[in-house]
Amino acid sequence: MTEVAKAVAVLDLGLRACTAYDRPDAAARLTAAREALADPVMHVVVAGEFKQGKSSLVNALVGAAVCTVDDDVATAVPTYVRHGEKPEAHLLFAAPDPEPPRRETIPISDVRRYVVEGGENGGNGSRVTGVEVRIPRKILAGGLVLVDTPGVGGLASPHAAASLAAVSMADAVIFVTGAAQELTRSEVDFLQRARALCPVVACVITKTDFYPAWRRIRDLNEQHLAAHCPVPLMPVSSALRSRAVKANDTALNAESGFTNLVKFITDQIGGNAADRLAADAAAEVIALCDQLDSHFQAERTALSDPEAARRVVRELTAVKSRVETLKSSAAKWNQTLNDGVADLTADIDHDLRARVRTVIAESDAAIEEADPADTWPEMEPWLQSRMADELLANYNMLRVRADALSERVGNHFHEASTALMSRPSVHNPTPMSVVADFQHKIDLQRMRVGKQAMVALKNAYGGALMFIILGSLVGVSLGPIGIGIGLVMGHRGLREEKKRQVQRRRTEARNAIRRYCDEVVFVAGKDSRDTLRRVQRQLRDHYSRLAEELNRSNAQALAGASEAAKRTQAEREQRLKDVDAELERVRKLRQRALAVIG
Amino acid sequence: MSLIDRTRVLLDHALPVYRGTEHAARLAAVRERLDAPLRVAVAGRVKAGKSTLLNALVGERLAPTDAGECTRIVTWYQDGHTYQVQATPNRGEPRALRFSREDGAIDVDLGGLNAKDVARLVVTWPAKALRTVTLIDTPGIGSLSEQNAQHTWDLLVPEDEETPADAVVYLLRHLHAGDIEFLRAFHDTEVSRPSPVNAIGVLSRADEIGVGRLDSMASARRIATRLGTDANVRRLVQSVVPVAGLLAETAVTLTEVEVAQLRRVADLPVRQAEELLLSADRFVNAMPELGLTNLEREALLARFGLFGVRLTSTLLRREVATTATDLSRELAERSGLTQLREIIGSLFVERSDVLKSRSALLALAETTRVCAQPGGEAVAAAVEEILASAHPFNELRVLSSLRAGWITGKPDVVTELERLIGGSGGSAHERLQLAPDTGAGELTAAAGQALARWQRRAENPMTTYEMAVAARVAVRSCEGMLAGLGQPR
Questions:
Q1: Which range marks the domain in which residue B431 is found?
Q2: Which of B334, B361, B381 is the last residue of a domain?
Q3: Are B153 and A488 a contacting pair at CB < 8 A?
């Protein structure tokens, strides 16, 4: 039985327990986990330099011409290729926060019009931020979403940073390089950074059909990768694969090298993601077991003798008020969250401003050294890519710090809640089942804690937002370059005049750069504030819900204990047997859930 | 007196002024250069295919096309009576080097010299193509990403400086125009800096753009045309043409043996040939009954590339060309080499007097600026007079201002101006956009109309100042054409 199937079975048991023990609140959580497990979404970002065959690779993988391939024009917006019952295509538009992106259905044959550079915009003039294509394919059925990233500008441009932003949200990255030459410095750099951001990275050499020397290139690349970033390397030929799919030619398919790639995607990428989802689901069940366990332990203690029952009721009543506090804004976790987000907002903003200042200083120095009339065409892309790098660094800082904050909030919450929930079990005569299990539980909670911030960030960025931010900033205009008639006349006597003009151009260039940087700070600043606000909301809602669950669990325990106090001796003995049986069931459920995590 | 004669006279006059100074030798060299063939450099980033293209232009495999010791040194290929290779070290006298020819390419024995200490190699080789131009192979600037990226623009040399080459062919790989790497191709400024006056762009490795499909060159042509209209490219080079370098080199060095080998492929039924040429691996290994050994097949791939093998076998099958000579011509045409040669002819060779004078005068101006000598001021004034008054220079200046977007106007007006001042070739029919075989009468009539049109534009008070200056230059160009056609105004 696969991990996923085990996890589904455990979840179903958990759901039945929820019905049996009247816990609709917990059932909602388990149902969500079950849905995620049934419909897993794994984003695989296909990235690489301009014209290395990214779109061809995606097309060859799914065996259909879903991404536009052109000799010259590059893909300009990300294309998401995923499973669907029948082929269909949607345009995605940016929507004001917090609405989901607006969609518009288009015929598949029209996709080309929107995804290439200089392509059309949507019906009412809003910007297309992505295209989603759904086709029925076995390879995609497991929830795989192939993301064909724009190749505009290559890795030395702002779009590289945007690709990295997309990579940081992805489950896996397939990096594409042609067999024409060995990996370049910027490609290796990109791979290294991608590897730091994403758990699964693979490098694919394309166009092996065209370059006779691809084996030499592969060997060279293997050396480079071994030295700088050890990731698997797979040579493929999209042309051969496409032909093999069309002709249903298994031998040719093997020759194309795609069998390895498909195996890698299904085993490594699909398998990994499924395992993670299964572990998440099992952790949800374990959390439920914890609550049920403490509830029945409390009732058991209460049943053992009337004196204990009164004490337990007293304690549980005290816990009730403490749980109320945990829900309120005065709770420590809530304060940590509010203060943390405020601090983080200020820090991120300061970091951004500091970075932009560095960029301005560097540009000023560069402008001072040369005539902007000569260097501006190069200065502009340089500035954009420099800025994109800084934005990415700033955004990474946000990501890391938000994760840390989320963990801190989670720890505070769990400290408080564990203290609460473990009180009744102090008098528990039976020892905790296994101490190691308890440790394990903490680790799991940590894991889920970290995820909360990522969920918020994923919702915020979706990998595509960086493209939008940078896209809206393209175009640093210098204004008309004032070149006087001196150049037309060519008189040396105008040397002084020329010098004056250079000075004027420098001033203009400096002003243009400042305007651009202002705009960047404005847009990016707003974006990170919004993101943090979303993170805050997400965390608050998550832990409030948990507190509510604890409250309910505690209320049930209290009811059970109060009832126990009223029971007769015979009834008590009878109930004690029942509770022991329930405890045994919960223990078994927990063991099964633990088995899924392995 | 023509421009080059005026330059010659001026240099002859300047030589005694600077005799005995450190600049004397340099000026003598400048004077000699006036009577030597035009110097054209092949520049671009590493791995752009410079040596391959140079071989194609010479028509012989001279430059080693693998990363050897020689390609790390600037190498000059010039015409001469004997075969010899000379090294000019950074310090010390030039010395002759021993060399051998292996597999066509020249293998030079540096004779104990370190490649870093050699300023340049001069290969003297009797070849027809080298009689009109001296070709300069450059090592190409290396990967800049290893240097500090923000200082890339330092590499641009200041304006108005003497450069070793009179004209440059820049090799560009197909990169996105938004890519900084793209513009860096023009940073190879060791021999000359790009200017729309003396530089053209070549979209190299054109066969790779369509990944070897038979219509790859059509794709490449479309891309080259688009690049040629890109504002950033226009201000650096005159036009961009696509060249499949490897195929061009093979075209001019094609052997009958190779044709016979490829004919075996061409004789296969279409479907089988297609299967065989599906991938490079298949071509080497599949179909042992073809009668070619693996080594022969690998050699064919190395010479033609997969695109070349596909194209050549198709040409043979369709009997577009049947002999090695015909095939050679056809491949030169299809690889873009013929077009490149034509463009070099019309933009560089025809204008070589102007380009050479320009190099010489820039060098002389530089000397007068840095070295004060009695009589130097008179030389400086004379240089300035020629630079400012010679009509060809005014044309070039207007041309670069147009290309840089400093002179603006209605698109059709700007296009006509650019052509009239010789932007697409110096001959009268090219300037007037008429067929090459147009009669003198028709040319005269057209030139007269253009003259009247541009005179009106120059005098129209609504014309912008820049455009008026440019229009006056155009008027002079028309007058020059009329004078050349033998019709007094």
A1: 391-489
A2: B334
A3: no
Q: Which residues in A lie closer than 8 A to residue B220 (C-beta atoms)?
A: 71
Chain B positions touching A189 (Cβ under 8 A) are: 145
Q: Does A379 touch chain B (CB under 8 A)?
A: yes
CA A467-A469-A471 angle, 5° bins: 60
Strands A200-206 and A233-235: parallel
Distance CA B141, CA A499 (A): 30
**A chain contacts of residue B280, beta-carbon cutoff 8 Å:** 208-212, 214
Chain B residue whose CA is closest to A360: B150
Picking from A373, A404, A386, the residue whose alpha carbon sits closest to that of residue A507 is A373
Please report, for chain A, the start and end positions of each structural domain, with discontinuous segments joined by +.
Answer: 40-256, 305-566
Q: Which two tokens stand for residue A579?
A: 């509770």
B212 to A210: CB separation less than 8 angstroms, yes or no? yes
CA distance A393 to chain B (A): 17
Q: Give the minimum alpha-carbon distance from A69 to chain B in angstroms, rounded to a whole number.
A: 10
- Cβ atoms B2, B355 nearer than 8 A: no
Tell me if B281 and A51 make a contact (CB, 8 A cut-off): no
B476 and B398 co-located in one domain: yes
Chain-chain contact of A209 with B280 (C-beta, under 8 angstroms)? yes
Architecture of domain A40-256: 3-Layer(aba) Sandwich (3.40)
| Whether A386 and B208 lie within 8 Å, measured CB to CB | no
Specify the DSSP element, H or E, that contains A250.
Answer: helix A250-256
Number of domains in chain B: 2
Residues B412 and B477 placed together within one structural domain of the fold = yes
| Whether residue B395 is found in the same domain as residue B309 | no
Least confident window among A173-187, B1-15, B141-155: B141-155
Kindly give, in sequence order, each residue whose CB lies less than 8 Å from that of residue B207, ignoring residues fewer than 6 positions away: B216, B217, B220, B244, B246, B247, B305, B307, B308, B335
pLDDT tens figures, B73-93: 778 899 988 888 888 887 778
Which ipTM did the prediction report? Answer: 0.77
Q: Which of B310, B334, B358 is the last residue in one of the domains?
A: B334
Residue owning tokens 């900084």: B180
> Most B CBs within 10 Å: which of A210, A214, A238, A474, as the mutation test of the B interface?
A210
pTM for the whole structure: 0.77
Asked if B50 and B43 count as a contact pair (C-beta separation under 8 A), the reply is yes
The verdict on B488 and B396 lying in the same domain is yes
The predicted-structure confidence for B428-476, as pLDDT tens digits, reads as follows: 888 888 888 888 889 999 999 999 999 999 898 888 887 888 898 899 8
